[in-house]
Specification:
Structural class: alpha+beta
Strand order of the largest sheet: 2-3-1-5-4-9-10
Oligomer: single chain
Strand content: 25-35%
Radius of gyration: 26 Å
CATH architecture of the largest domain: 2-Layer Sandwich
Number of strands: 10
Distance between the termini: 51 Å
């Protein structure tokens, strides 16, 4: 099973593009479900207008992901009227769908945690200070560590420490993701508006299909012949 991180972004586009990201996100997630591909949203940055998304990063897991993403990675176009500026004449809006390559999500395996029993401190009298019930837990891969002395039971403190490490690692993942997005900021700056991989139209976001009629094919062949002669 493959794992990839996909980013939908409005790039430097206006609020309309962020609105398109929010709409396309729903279509993307629906297609993931229809193709039995697992997903989780890692990070989402809302736009300045209600109901808009400036950027969203999604972790996907499944089989034949390159085949699925072939029809997604690149520029996505929406043809429609601005939802925020009534008299805006622009009809074409573009967003990007990119793969983040540098991000690596850290997970916790218990054999990767170093535990150290230490004496508890604070209220509780001499008994607390004499018993090594507190636990310091360190995740060796990231260096993230926690100190837990909630309980007089070392075993219970160990369980709490593992849970708190998971929470801290989750925050670590988000910070790393933000760095990855910053490192791949060229995705935002080099959004190609030509030759979109997908085109959607109207407020219902219907996908515009390419005309594959015989007449269209015949006209294409005629144009090719004219170029050659």
């Amino acid at each position: 099973m493959d794992t990839k991180i996909i980013q939908l972004t409005a790039s430097k586009g206006p609020a309309e593009c962020a609105w398109v990201v929010a709409k396309i996100l729903k279509v993307f997630l629906k297609e993931l479900t229809n193709n039995s591909i697992e997903y989780s949203i890692l990070h989402k940055e809302n736009g300045i207008e209600n109901g808009t998304v400036q950027s969203v990063s999604i972790e996907i897991k499944g089989k034949e992901l390159p085949k699925f993403l072939k029809n997604w990675l690149g520029t996505i176009q929406w043809i429609g009227t601005s939802t925020f500026r009534k008299y805006n004449k622009r009809k074409n809006w573009f967003i990007g769908c990119n793969e983040l390559h540098q991000y690596q999500k850290k997970t916790i395996q218990e054999h990767e945690i170093q535990f150290q029993a230490i004496r508890s401190s604070g209220a509780g009298g001499q008994h607390v200070n004499k018993v090594s019930s507190a636990v310091r837990a360190k995740h060796l891969k990231t260096g993230v560590q926690v100190l837990v002395s909630d309980s007089r039971s070392q075993h219970q403190n160990k369980k709490i420490a593992i849970q708190r490490l998971k929470e801290k690692i989750a925050k670590h993942n988000i910070n790393q993701l933000k760095e990855s997005i910053q490192n791949e900021w060229e995705n935002h700056l080099t959004l190609q508006r030509g030759n979109p991989v997908r085109v959607f139209t109207g407020s219902d976001f219907k996908q515009k299909k390419k005309d594959k009629s015989f007449r269209t094919k015949r006209n294409e062949l005629k144009n090719d012949l004219r170029r050659e002669f």
